[in-house]
UniProtKB/TrEMBL annotation:
Protein name (Swiss-Prot/TrEMBL): HXXXD-type acyl-transferase family protein
Classification lineage: Eukaryota, Viridiplantae, Streptophyta, Embryophyta, Tracheophyta
Molecular function GO labels: acyltransferase activity
Natural source organism: Forsythia ovata
InterPro entries: CAT-like_dom_sf (IPR023213), Sec_Metabolite_Acyltrans (IPR051283)
Pfam families on file: Transferase
Keywords: Acyltransferase, Transferase
Family named by the database record: Belongs to the plant acyltransferase family.
Length: 449
């Protein structure tokens, strides 16, 4: 018997409630934006329970959809690039090829209504994340360059038997994780304000993009056609599980890492990343001389001098990594691995950021998912610092965070806050099936989850 599938009921396009003068101008893209052109959209969403009596009123879901649309239209006044489309400016003499966000006269953000004849338990109780979760998001397998014709933002609201999933997909050229959740938080804030004419939000986004000193905001790319810098990538068959780490467990991991190094400088996130790196490397059964890396997504806003504000809207991230051999990683212990990551993070200064930008000006490097990541490494993405469970849309607190197909590969780990708050975390881990089975049997790993 085939499992139920998501049924798509309707779609519409939502424009900002009104247009400002700023929203009529092109938004030119910084190096960190342009390097995302060939990777996937960001796909994250929240699973909510239906409030008591919700199913008794046939208008409940219809009313919710209208309120979501109305509040989204107000939120897009502030986050107007999300209602736009990408555009290419190209000329022969002098040679010019650049991509920007065209906000004026765009169709708007896409809004999808869908349904699925499954319960919340059907989504959350299986050991692995059910594949149907990927259908809770638009832009399946789309790359960011597709934003020339596809929406830069889609909200998909999927009604379950006893729950509602609100899935959000945003073009990664337009926003990084910080900006993704900045938008989501603002949308929730507008929804909760309940005033259609309340156009103020507590954290207005800053749309003026950062460019290297002395450089024009129109960055000329050395291409003549998008085939020269885009590619499609299909992930291998993988298992995807969400593992919970309690505050007490994380405290023990951090204390052990610091104790082994006779320091107090190693953070919870650095210690946890080292722990996962070691456990996954052991599960993969590498030979001692096999090189392995742990990559961390790192926010450059606070590392630039002067720093960028937290409300800077766009991409301001890089990946940094620590590399060693499997033998060294497993032989030297948790503290040693965590210290390698600690050093990698603290050495990522304004000087290194600017050196990377200077290098990019020469290479115009565009991330390619199929080439950038390898099966001997892990990649730690997202952040438990993002406010995910604070988003409410008249449904109470969400039960879980889930993500779509996008940007997943063997060794991808996404960090989310735990539902109980504090410093607890949920880790969404993607591994090939035989590696996941080995990880589930790893004593050092199972003792901590």
């Amino acid at each position: 018997m085939n499992p139920p599938t998501v049924k798509f009921i309707s779609e519409s396009f939502i424009k900002p409630k009104y247009s400002s003068e700023e929203s009529k101008k092109p938004v030119y893209l910084a190096p960190w934006d342009l390097m995302m052109l060939s990777v996937h959209y960001i796909q994250k969403g929240l699973l909510f329970p239906k409030p008591p009596g919700f199913n008794d009123d046939e208008n409940s879901f219809k009313d919710l959809l209208q309120k979501l649309k109305d509040s989204l239209s107000v939120t897009l006044v502030h986050f107007f690039p999300l209602a736009g489309r990408l555009a290419t400016l190209q000329q022969d003499e002098p040679p010019l090829y650049t991509i920007y966000i065209k906000c004026a006269n765009s169709p708007g953000a896409r809004f999808i209504q869908a349904s699925l004849n499954l319960s919340v338990s059907d989504i959350l109780s299986p050991t692995d994340v059910p594949p149907v979760v990927q259908s809770f998001f638009d832009h399946d397998r789309a790359i960011n360059h597709d934003g020339h014709t596809e929406s830069l933002l889609t909200i998909q609201v999927t009604e379950l038997i006893d729950g509602i999933f609100i899935g959000c997909s945003i073009n990664h050229v337009v926003a990084d994780g910080s900006s993704f959740w900045h938008f989501f938080n603002a949308w929730s804030e507008v929804f909760k304000a309940k005033g259609e004419n309340n156009l103020t939000i507590s954290r207005p986004p800053i749309h003026k993009h950062w460019f290297p000193e002395g450089h024009d905001p129109i960055l000329n790319l050395p291409f003549t056609h998008h085939d020269q810098f885009t590619s499609r990538h299909d992930s291998p068959l993988m298992r995807e599980r969400v593992f919970h780490f309690s505050a007490a467990s994380l405290a023990k991991i951090k204390a052990k890492a610091n104790s082994e190094c006779n320091t107090t400088k190693i953070s919870t996130l650095q210690a946890l990343s080292a722990h996962i790196w070691r456990c996954v490397t052991r599960a993969r059964g590498f030979l001692p001389d096999q090189n392995t890396s742990c990559r961390l997504a790192i926010n450059n806003r606070t590392r630039l001098n002067p720093p960028l504000p937290d409300d800077y809207f766009g991409n301001c991230i890089q990946t940094v990594k620590a590399t060693t051999t499997a033998g060294k990683l497993l032989r030297n212990g948790l503290g040693w691995a965590a210290w390698q990551l600690h050093q990698t993070v603290i050495n990522h200064t304004d000087k290194l950021v600017l050196e990377w930008v200077d290098s990019w000006q020469q290479t115009h490097f565009i991330y390619q998912l199929g080439q950038f990541f390898d099966t001997s490494s892990i990649m730690m993405g997202s952040s438990p610092r993002f406010d995910m469970y604070g988003n409410e849309f008249g449904l109470g607190k969400a039960l879980a965070i889930r993500s779509g197909y996008a940007n997943k590969f063997d060794g991808k780990v996404s960090l989310y806050p735990g539902i109980e708050g504090g410093v607890s975390m949920d880790l969404e881990i993607c591994l090939q099936p035989h590696f996941m089975t080995a990880l589930e049997s790893d004593q050092e790993f199972t003792d901590t989850v």
